[in-house]
Design a protein that fits this description.
3-stranded parallel β-sheet, two-stranded antiparallel sheet, mainly alpha, D-Maltodextrin-Binding Protein, domain 2, globular, 5 strands, about 45% helix
């Protein structure tokens, strides 16, 4: 199609350079998240029953599972207590750096959490993407039809986003946070990615 052979060569050379550049971009991106994971494992997640190698193996799983959601913005809310302050200031930042998902964890008073939560359940209007609230509200969630069994999520649409090494027995409170359906949990996630596991919390031990 070209009278002068330099055009195909130029096009091929451009395509080759573009492909190499794209490959380097993917590699740099992968290194970015792996480097972040190493930093958090070495600096913040030291108190763990897992070895560093086991933690990094789980971190690599998180990085790969999050790839399709990178750049997504997620807003989570909880009441202002020490546990949630740690989640907001430390774990939210770790999650964002390791996965590439922009997570904002807002802290407000308990009464405001309940009020906004009920407003969202009643109206269907998305105020926050995720909620961290007290287990004694599980009855309220059930009456609004907002309860789903954890097993259904883990074995269904959330299977590819559930850490293979996750063990529900590692979680505290299962005996008193079970509603009318066995092993149920409060869900108001609006089809958000649910990455569940021990590496991001730095521990898989029973507490």
């Amino acid at each position: 199609m070209f009278k002068n052979n330099k055009y195909p060569k130029t096009l091929l050379l451009s395509a080759a350079i573009g492909s190499v550049g794209l490959g380097l971009s993917f590699q740099a991106s992968a290194d970015q998240y792996s480097d972040a994971a190493k930093k958090w494992v070495n600096e913040a997640f030291k108190n763990s029953t897992l070895t560093k190698e086991e933690q990094m193996k789980e971190m690599e799983w998180f990085i790969q599972a999050a790839e399709q959601f990178r750049g997504m913005d997620i807003n989570v809310v909880s009441e202002t207590i020490a546990t949630h302050e740690y989640e907001s200031k430390v774990l939210a930042e770790a999650f964002s750096e390791i996965t590439g998902i922009n997570l904002t964890h807002t802290l407000i008073q308990e009464g405001d959490v309940i009020e906004k939560l009920q407003t969202q359940m009643q109206s269907g209007r998305n105020i926050y993407d995720g909620w961290v609230n007290d287990s004694d509200l599980i009855g309220t969630h059930f009456r609004y039809g907002k309860v789903m069994p954890v097993e259904d999520i883990m074995n269904g649409e959330g299977k590819d986003l559930t850490l293979p090494t996750l063990d529900l027995d590692d979680f505290i409170g299962l005996d008193f946070t079970t509603g009318l359906m066995a092993s149920s949990t409060n869900c108001l996630t609006n089809s958000l990615p649910t990455f569940t596991g021990s590496a991001l919390t730095g521990s898989s031990a029973k507490t």
